[in-house]
Amino acid sequence: MPLDSASPLTVLVLNDFCHVQGGASKVAIDEAVALAQSGARVIFVGAVGPVCDALAAAPLETVCLNQPELLSAGKHPMALLQSMWNQPARRRITALLHGLDPARTIVHLHGYTKALSTSPMLAVRDAGFAAVCTLHDFYTACPNGAFFDYAKQEPCTRRALSASCIAANCDKRAYAHKLFRIVRGVAQRDVARFPTSVRDYITLSDRSASILRDYLPHDAKLHALGNVIDAAPAPAVDAAASSQVVFVGRLDVEKGVVLLAEAAAAIDLPVTFVGDGPLRTQIEATPGMTVTGWLPGSDVKRHLAAARCLVFPSLWYEAYGLVVAEAAAQGVPAIVSDISAAAERVGHGTTGWHFRSGDAQALQDALTRVRDDAAIRAAGSAAYSAFWSDPPTPAAHTAGLLAIYEAILRP
Fold first, then answer.
1. Mean per-residue pLDDT for 137-142?
2. φ and ψ of 13, to 5 deg
3. pLDDT (tens digit per residue) in 351-375
4. Is a pLDDT exceeding 60 seen at residue 2?
5. Residue 333 falls within a domain, yes or no?
6. Averaged over 223-235, what is the pLDDT?
7. 224 and 248 in a common domain
8. Is 409 strand, coil or helix?
9. Under DSSP, is residue 181 helix (H, G, I), strand (E, B) or coil?
10. Average pLDDT value over all residues in the chain
11. pLDDT in tens, 107-128
């Protein structure tokens, strides 16, 4: 969707990192590059360097603040303060806004919890510029960003920042870290005025939209736009011809990897875990389980293409479930937990199967279907057809993003 040269659009992209460090950064960078290639003027502002090759080579402006990431800075008071209120970032963005036309400029916020903070958004509002935030996670409301109780290993239903939330020792690290997150959350809400300072949000799934809706401004507009899938059209693989069951992602508690390993071992079903994380040793000690460690994207695609079935057993809500769509693009069906956003991309009994989240027996029952060649072949074919009937290609994604911007800027 090329832009009308008579009314050029400027997009100010804000993100923690100037390089790929997690899913939000990848989306922010990929979108910025695609927008610049479509003809928009793009200014990418990141707190933490270095600047990646993709940004450096793209026809856009990159402003790197060269600030430390919160985790790498340790417990230094200035780093902790910066993560709550990043005054240098606020000043720099205020300066960048001078000279830009509010009628043809939009500010797009991606990741902000690792260094950037939400302080720039107050400056954006005060200067009268339109803004949109992509809801990559749940930090807009939840202090730990996941609505997940790591101590109980189950989704959290407490009201974020309520008394019961503050009292709960739900953090992945320790209660002291939870208290820091609480203070940051209060500062975000009451000092930076976020999320009330932003009226438009891009949602990746109905699941995340339904969870966060009550925490956003009452007049907030939600724009649905899933993640882009960079998949080249190719014939579907014959999933039934493969024997490999795969998991792709971080080996951590909320991902449900221990549940998967134990359920698969109980029925003597080998699983290949493509990824790494703190639970790697435990997974590798389970009979029949193989862990590859982190692999380049091209190797991950090869594992998916050689898979009989993908399993996505997350115990938490997730915001999208990208790998499920990537598997479907190749004709590989998926087994997903019913609580995760990924379930929206799997038709139960048609393109894959759902199972009750956290239920080992339910997962075992779903895994037994993997041995049925006819069921796998039918589900894989249906998944492939569903994906390619309306593929979320880079071009389609960029067109959708530009349409959202124009809708926001329209008087």
1. 96
2. -95, 125
3. 999 999 999 999 999 999 999 999 9
4. no
5. yes
6. 92
7. no
8. helix
9. helix
10. 94
11. 999 999 999 999 999 999 999 9
Do 202 and 319 have their domain in common?
no
166 neighbors 182 (Cβ within 8 angstroms): yes
What's the domain range around 339?
239-389
Task: Give 94-132 as a DSSP string.
Answer: HHHHTTS-GGGEEEEE---TTTT-SHHHHHHHHTT-EEE
State which H helix or E strand residue 43 sits in: strand 41-48
> In whole angstroms, what is the distance from residue 317 CA to residue 207 CA?
7
Say whether both 222 and 322 belong to one domain.
no
Q: Which residue has the tokens 């926001």?
A: 408
pTM of this structure: 0.92
Question: Residue 399 burial by CB count (10 A; 0-12/13-18/19+): exposed, middle or buried?
Answer: middle
The token duo for 282 is 């435990």
3-state SS, residue 203: strand
Residue 233 lies in a domain: no
> Residues 258, 277: contact at Cβ < 8 Å?
no
Give the C-alpha separation, 196 to 202, whole Å.
15
CA distance 206 to 257: 24
Question: Are the CB atoms for 408 and 7 separated by under 8 Å?
Answer: no
Same domain for 126 and 98: yes
| Structural contact between residues 34 and 65, judged by C-beta atoms closer than 8 angstroms | no
